[in-house]
Amino acid sequence: MFRDSKLFFIIAETPLHPGSGSEVGLVDLPIQRERYTDFPKIESSGLKGCIREAFENFNEKINIDNISISANDKELISIIFGPEEGELHAGAIAFTDAKILLFPVKSLKGVFAWITCPIVLERLKRDINVLGLKINELEIDFAKLVKTVPDNCELLINSKVVLEEFTFDVESCDKTKQIAEFLSRVIFPENKDRNIYKFWREKLKKDLVIISDDDFMEFVKTSTEVITRIKIDDAVGTVTKDGGNLWTEEYLPQDTVLYSIAMFSPLRVDKERKDKFEIFKGKSLEEERKIVARIFEQGLPNVIQIGGNQTIGKGIARIQRLENRVEEQDE
To answer: From the centroid of its chain, how far is CA 23?
Structure first.
């Protein structure tokens, strides 16, 4: 049913709190996690809602086949994302859960490293293959690269890397450098007008560390940000008598990188609603699907807000699309 797909990266520009609700545990408001790995994730429903809101607040025009349309048109958003209330029809865009790809960890040298692991890289390779792409840089047995760094790594201290309070004996590896260069190229691409991501691109090329799946799981469980908050009475400047108790919130740290896949289908509304938009008049189902994909590509802002605590500057994320177009067989 969904034949056109687009993989995109989500780069945390500020800490993210894709919350899972309150829990009885060490953290009152934890982030969302996969049940069987404990890896952080962003649920597809929440991600779709954030992207829908980004469209609603996007005030610029987009151009499809020389036809100018408003990306924030309420009716257009309704037929593409689905109605906000009721179950009149499904939307023409679906999203996968956002999966973790790179996690920033404090390093004794080089300030911080991005870490990943074989299972995360294997997932990325599998998802890219599902899109119909084959990327040579990822045609690797990642299990053989545990405890490796690029051969130009700047984190090394006598062939060791110190992450948080843990020391890892690592080896320099050309294949790890190959992976780091690929990721740096697609996550922090060169900009024709302003090469604003040059520093981050060069850092990722040098400061990627591939660790074991078990070690990665421990880091993403124990090295997230946990912030303690409290409510203050403005009148007296002290803790309120009611509701002023301390509570803790968990955040994915700034510079975390995740990715998701957007999938597109033809519109699921009647001809009368389609014909309100010139771009859809007389189009085949295949053409509709491609137009929906183009609206997503052009209408999605480069920066969106994801998760809670927007008013205190949390959840700002940059979107970077992987340039591809894939067509799969209908189910």
So the answer is: 24
Tell me: the pLDDT tens digits for 92-126? 999 999 999 999 999 999 999 999 999 999 999 99
- Domain regions of the chain by residue span: 4-321
Q: What digits encode the pLDDT tens for the residues 144-160?
A: 999 999 999 999 999 99
Amino acid (1-letter code) at residue 241: K
Distance CA 248, CA 144 (A): 39
pTM for the whole structure? 0.91
d(CA 210, CA 278): 50
In degrees, rounded to 5, the angle at the alpha carbon of residue 203 between the alpha carbons of residues 198 and 204 is 100
CA–CA distance, 275 with 257 (Å, rounded to integer)? 40
Pick from 117, 107, 102, 99: nearest CA to 217: 117
Q: What is the DSSP string of 88-144?
A: S---SEEEPPEEEEEEEEEBSSSSEEEEE-HHHHHHHHHHHHHTT---GGG-S-GGG
